[in-house]
Design goal:
Blueprint (H helix, E strand, L loop, with lengths): L1 H11 L15 H16 L31 H6 L15 H8 L5 H9 L12 E2 L9 H8 L16 E3 L2 H12 L5 E6 L4 H7 L5 E6 L16 H13 L4 E7 L11 H13 L3 E5 L28 E6 H4 L8 E5 L2 H10 L7 H12 L1 H30 L3 E2 L6 E5 L9 H13 L2 E2 L1 E2 L10 E5 L4 H44 L43 E2 L12 H13 L3 H4 L10 H15 L1
Parallel strand pairs: 1-11, 3-4, 3-5, 5-6, 6-7
Antiparallel strand pairs: 2-8, 7-8, 9-14, 10-13, 12-13
Helix pairs in contact: 1-13, 2-14, 7-8, 7-12, 14-16, 15-16, 16-17
């Protein structure tokens, strides 16, 4: 089966590690495959337990877009549900936990519900929604389809040996690891921003909470970079968690990072692991993006390639097929650990998260084909990712949008703070919905628990036609925001000027202390009237760093001078009337909530409509 084949790879090639490079060692791919070699060598080492397999996890419909009053939730989660059509309320058939799970909805669910109902199709639905929010690699489907349909994929060998824990995806692994390492209400440290679904992975079943290690978007000094994770920040978060009475059991380390696309060096990872050892924390190392490094100058090193780990019994390494092999939906995740007790405990949960035997077999055959992986798939995938990344960064530069220039991942972490009327997560959500109205889905920063509003993740690993149309729609959305902001700024300035003139007439030389609101706006350099995809030259030069650490940073801060209350209310009223907020948020959506709160909501809506 899957893990048995990995062991066979090691036994049949004792002098050459799996995935030995067959091309120049100065390219990115050998660097990435060296890390992959380490994890496969470790995965093929004998373990103490086999993993049962069973039926794949059932597919469920997204939960209804509603949050009941009795279900504690964060403000941003409530905001994401305001446009839902129904309020399902409390079911008498379910437990409190069951109702909470049923009614839970992520911050981005609204957008993806609309996307699945209105997907872009070149011929059948050309005005449908382009998905640039889901982190999937769609650049090499042709290569995978050809390999996955070869005859050796269709023959099943009944003899199998399982050496590592295999489950149906890394989400199941996160959930299971949290269950066996933590008790309910225990905590796990995790740096922010991070892939937000991990919150549900560790909480819905296990009742484990994540304690955030907030990273600053601004460099803090010499040698620092935006969103820079350091041991000092981990220590500070640990002290804060202890002061709040939390029992911290583990720390999550994602390398390469999602959504930042940072690749941490062996020295950095060693420092993080030593921090975990000092505090007797389990280190859950997520290396699911290990083969997505596409820049020639960067090398990925798996922690399993280290000569020794600071605390092997508390270091657990996760990896899956979905990202590195462009197989989103295949649901195959693995975890390697030297901890016998952990492996045995995960084995017990394997019956709920098993991978069907035929799928394990196909994945094993695929991983054994070193010639195809090193000679065909990885080099071609790297070239296609480089071209797509060049195109996307070129477009962002033409828009004047700052972003992190990083060497890995399927996405770019872009700074759209200058398009927010004010620095708030409510404004960020409004901008995200503006993109959705223009039929393109992105991922906003609050979905990744980013501490600073205005950051968005944009996925670039898609076909050129989709990228072209998606960027055209992003451009039009930003033009709309830019135009509305300029109009609002002009109106506010005129109003303030009239007030100032009136005061001079009545009071003589009295100085006006109410200055107009100043909102910076950036004129966009391109303006296309047609949405037909244009032929683009993919030989776009690489993004030119404007500051250190390849962080392309423009002036994103908005100045907010003091204003009169009437002026602010007027600006807010105009903003509401120029959006679809009133149409989406009707009192009927809150019919099942507290009657007193509903009355307040109706009163506020009536005032906003005036």
């Amino acid at each position: 089966m899957f893990t048995g084949a990995l062991a066979a790879v090691r036994q049949t090639a004792p002098t050459a590690p799996p995935f030995a490079p067959t091309f120049s060692t100065d390219s990115t791919v050998p660097s990435a495959t060296s890390g992959h070699t380490a994890i496969l060598n470790a995965l093929s080492a004998p373990a103490t337990s086999s993993v049962p397999f069973g039926c794949p996890a059932p597919t469920t419909e997204p939960p209804p877009p509603s949050i009941p009053a009795h279900c504690p939730t964060k403000p941003e989660s409530i905001l994401a549900t305001l446009s839902g059509a129904e309020t399902p309320g409390h079911s008498v058939y379910l437990s409190r936990r069951g109702n909470s799970i049923r009614q839970h909805q992520g911050i981005l669910q609204e957008g993806y519900t609309q996307y699945h109902a209105d997907k872009y199709q070149h011929t059948d639905n050309p005005n449908g929604i382009i998905n640039m929010g889901t982190s999937e690699n769609k650049l090499c489907y042709d290569l995978l389809h050809k390999r996955m349909t070869q005859p050796d994929m269709l023959h099943i060998d009944p003899d199998f040996i399982c050496h590592v824990v295999v489950m149906n995806g890394c989400g199941s692994l996160f959930s299971s690891i949290a269950a066996v390492l933590c008790d309910p209400e225990d905590a796990i440290l995790i740096p922010t921003p991070f892939y937000g679904v991990i919150t549900e992975d560790v909480h819905l079943y296990s009742g484990v909470r994540l304690f955030h290690v907030h990273l600053d978007c601004e460099p803090s000094g010499s040698g620092s970079r935006p969103f820079h994770l350091t041991v000092d920040k981990l220590e500070e978060a640990m002290r804060k968690a202890i002061s709040e009475g939390l029992n911290v059991r583990a720390v999550v380390l994602v390398n390469p990072h999602n959504p930042l696309a940072d690749v941490y060096s062996p020295q950095e990872m060693t420092g993080f692991l030593e921090f975990a050892k000092r505090h007797k924390l389990h280190a859950i190392v997520d290396e699911v993006y290990m083969l997505t490094v596409f820049e020639d100058t960067v090398t990925f090193h798996s922690v399993l390639s280290m000569d020794s780990l600071p605390d092997p019994q508390r270091t657990h390494v996760m990896w899956g097929m979905s990202k590195d092999f462009a197989m989103a939906g295949m649901r195959v995740g693995t975890v390697y650990s030297d901890n016998r007790d952990l492996v045995e405990a995960l084995d017990k949960l394997g019956m709920f998260h098993g991978v069907p035997g035929p799928i394990q077999h196909q994945m094993a055959i695929l991983l054994q084909d070193k010639d195809w992986i090193n000679g065909k798939f990885l080099p071609e995938n790297r070239l296609r990712m480089q071209a797509a990344h060049r195109y996307m960064t070129g477009e962002l530069q033409s828009l004047g949008v700052p972003y992190l220039h990083r060497p890995a991942g399927f996405y770019i972490w872009a700074d759209l703070r200058k398009y927010l009327y004010e620095p708030s997560f409510v404004e960020e959500l409004s901008l995200w919905r503006c993109f959705l109205r223009h039929k393109v889905v992105l991922s906003c920063g609050q979905a990744f628990h980013c501490s600073t509003p205005g950051w968005f993740r944009i996925v670039f690993t898609d076909r050129q036609q989709h990228l072209t149309l998606g960027m055209q729609r992003i451009r039009r959305a930003l033009e709309e925001i830019d135009g509305a902001t300029s109009t609002l700024d002009t109106g506010t300035t005129n109003e303030a000027t009239e007030e100032k003139g009136t005061e001079k007439t009545t009071k003589g030389d009295t100085t006006d202390t109410h200055k107009p609101l100043a909102v910076k706006s950036t004129s966009l350099s391109k303006n296309r009237s047609s949405e037909e995809p244009e032929e683009k030259d993919n030989n776009i030069p690489d993004a030119i760093p404007l500051v250190s650490e390849d962080f392309i940073l423009l002036d994103c801060q908005t100045s907010h001078p003091a204003e009169s209350l009437d002026s602010l209310i007027g600006a807010l009223r105009q903003q509401i009337h120029t959006s679809d907020w009133l149409e989406k948020n009707t009192p009927e959506l809150s019919a099942g909530e507290d009657p007193e709160l509903l009355d307040v909501f109706k009163d506020l809506l009536d005032r906003a409509r005036k």
